[in-house]
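Q: Structure tokens for this one, please.
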Amino acid sequence: MEFRQLEYFIQICKSGSFTKAAEVLMVSQPTLSQQIRLLEQEYGTPLFDRVGRGIEINEAGKILFEKGIAVMKLIEDSRIETSKLSQNNEMIIGILPSDLIYLMPRFSQFHEQHLDISINFVDLEDIPGQLLQNTIDIGISTDLEPNKHIDSIHLFNEELALVVSKDHPWAEKLVIPFRELEKLQTVLFVKDTKLRKQLDAYINKTGVSLYLNVETTSTSTLLNMVRFRVGVTIDSLRLVESYNCPYTKIIRLIDPTPTREIKLFIRKNKLMLHKVRTFINHIPEFTNDL
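A: Here is the predicted structure, written as tokens:
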């Protein structure tokens, strides 16, 4: 059965005659009659009873009419919904401000290549909740607890580095082994508990004894604390470099080099919108040289 045949059949039922239906549909009556005959042949039963010079829908026809109306409504609803999707080209990205600072040039490059897609950034509070409530289209962050409703895509691994004041005893060092952190005479600050957990894994791996003081604050505040010799910090190498702070020194860590994985998170089993698919296809270029 073709949708055209279903449309013709429904209009005949509504009009009460082939003649009136042909006028509404703007087709010839022979064409209309031929399509209904094909429809009746496919279903193996008449759909109308011929009463005198008129027609009357029979029981089989009533069943098809009821189901046909539901099908046509579903098609129309789908058209409306897909039309709304095509008109809504704002992509809402949940991301931490600290990560956005050094990734912004890459987002700008994406927008320049896809001017039809606008980007709105919101702060990450609860990735699963924000995705499931459709308040964000994608989330970009470090790993989170497994969630059966969320899919993740690897973006890149972010190197973590030690930051000291320019007059710190280690300020002239370019690299140090991770286990050397045990010799620090100052407080080592990290900006959040998630980073603390990631560093704990390296502490356990190397067997060093290290005290981490979690300071829930911004990177800029931590860098000022380092500048005024309140302590030292470990943070994203790219992020610290983006601040270009002349009063601090960056020391890279080796054996091992601590990293954290940055991922893209999307809602599982949800129709992937054009804007989201476009961004995912852009990932190789977005993460190039990261």
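A few notes: The mean pLDDT is 87. The longest strand covers residues 150-165.
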